[in-house]
Amino acid sequence: MTVSRSICLGFISVILAGTLLLMMPFSTSSGQWNDPIVALFTSTSAVCVTGHVVVDTATHFSRIGQLFIMLLIQVGGLGYMTATTFLLLLLGRRFGLKDKIAIQQSLDRRALQGSAQILQSIIATTLLFELTGAFLLLLVFVPDVGWPKGLWFAIFHSVSAWNNAGFGLFSDNLVGYQGSFLVNVVITGLIIIGGIGYEVILEFYLMLRERMLRQKMRTVRSLNFRVAVSTTLFLLIGGTLAIWLIEVRNVKTLGTLSLPQQLLAAWFQSVTSRTAGFNTIDISQMTTAGLFITIALMLIGGSPGGTAGGIKTTTARVMASCTYAVLQGKESVVVYRRQVPNTLLLKAIGVTFGSAVTVVVATVFIAISDPELDFIRILFEVVSAFGTVGLSTGITAELTAFSKLVLVATMYIGRVGILLLISALLGDPRPSVINYPEESLLVG
Questions:
Q1: HSE of 206 in the Cβ direction (CA atoms, 13 Å)?
Q2: Consecutive H or E run containing 256
């Protein structure tokens, strides 16, 4: 049982447990047994922090069912190994080498040292931001729906936003709060910070503490920090401008809003498209160009080590830098005056190629099963599932059972990672002492 197999099987076990819980009569508002496909789809979507739904979460599930969904989101956002290892630490179990390797692989860390400390920091950071987000959302939800319901809504949406899940308890998601500045800022803030990666958050905290205490700067910004932050800012600003310019004349999305409301809605959609799944505009009414821009943002996703999905910002940056190096005729890839190792280039290529194959195969299967649907909507649905985003043009509930199962598999692959899944299937690679002769071939 390798670490990669433990992670993959762990996610499957949590999904199956969630499916059984969501099938129970006490999990539905009607008090009847839930459809197994609906329960499986919802459980997978929650554990994989996707947000895809085939039923209305607010009306189909009871308060207990919604609680189960929130707990599944929390476990899925932290990661199976992170959650289980932390529980074992609370029970007093010793933190062994296998646990350190598991945390390293699940969080995509570069070293084994400090795994227990980073685990404690992750839990503390998660609780801090989720409680802060819930408190701020109380100021909006309580006046609208009252204390008991407003408190539950605030907690649920804060947990969903921090873990980049996109599950909402309003039938129209957050369209009703399109003009609420506080809701837009809190939700997008939780999404961005939760999806940028725990190591980036920790590095930023250390730098901020040194600056506030006026200490000599000892923390050197790592390449991962620079790439993750700069690429995130570029995608957020570029995505906002692109969505605004494309949808500004569409009266069904941004066309009827004032300029400040247009920019706020475009910003929200740019942020949530990166893997969160909330929406303040009707996605089904977006133009084809707007949908395609959103697909690109969903495919890239967030940063490694966080709660986001997609191929990750660092992978996209490495691939872009590799292309730039080829155009310049260089034989090495340099990012911020640091040469990227060849092993990292191979990993980035593997992630990108494997992701593309997964999206293509899933799109073909759904197109065969549901031939009456438009291609752009099928592609949007598949990329949203793979990027663990959860945005939809409204076709999820209409899909056949086979297509829903395809999306379930796609969400699972997107959450555990294509390379980790292949490693679990094939086992750990065996070292080889054989070197083969080098030969060139025509490419491009």
A1: 15
A2: none
